[in-house]
């Protein structure tokens, strides 16, 4: 399904009837051959934007404006392409799926990989930049405060947390109704089947995310991600107060 190297329909059904962790362990070897992987256009647009004037406050000069970097809910490591281009120091990925981390480690052997629940991140004041792509739908609204508090704690004063988002689909688009239908189907599935598989596209409106980030102590901006080529999206820039390193 999706491509000759992607998962079959049967494999996707088995994944969907598993827990989130077990489902991604099963999907991991073929994940990069599915549409679930963060599009290269969003990754490129993130780098292009963060290398320019969208940064609040004075930005260090040079091709790598940040020190150390953290990819939150890293999956197979797509976000590492962003951290590698923006960070001059060590980079780390964290995820709770051992299968996804194994794929990430194989693709980026010189990065540090940590298995942990993103709602209880085991870091403190260690990073200048944190990013996450395509993962917020796995967290119920009530779980976001713990997630954002952990990222805030992981960043040094002045550090930046970047959430990459696609461009919101208009009500008239097929994608809008497809994501709505997907969320309804997942809610029905979780009402009748255990363990639950939390993945909702429509539980992360910008206003709610901004409020939760502000409550965690971040200074929040929303900017348009400007790609060097291809499609872009939106970026939430959440700055931990303090002088940047």
UniProtKB/TrEMBL annotation:
Pfam families the record matches: Methyltransf_25
Listed name of the protein: Methyltransferase
Organism: Mangrovihabitans endophyticus
Gene Ontology terms, MF aspect: methyltransferase activity
UniProt keyword annotations, A-Z: Methyltransferase, Transferase
Gene Ontology annotations of biological process type: methylation
Top-level taxon of the source organism: Bacteria
Domain Methyltransferase as annotated: residue spans: 70-159
CDD domains (UniProt xref): AdoMet_MTases
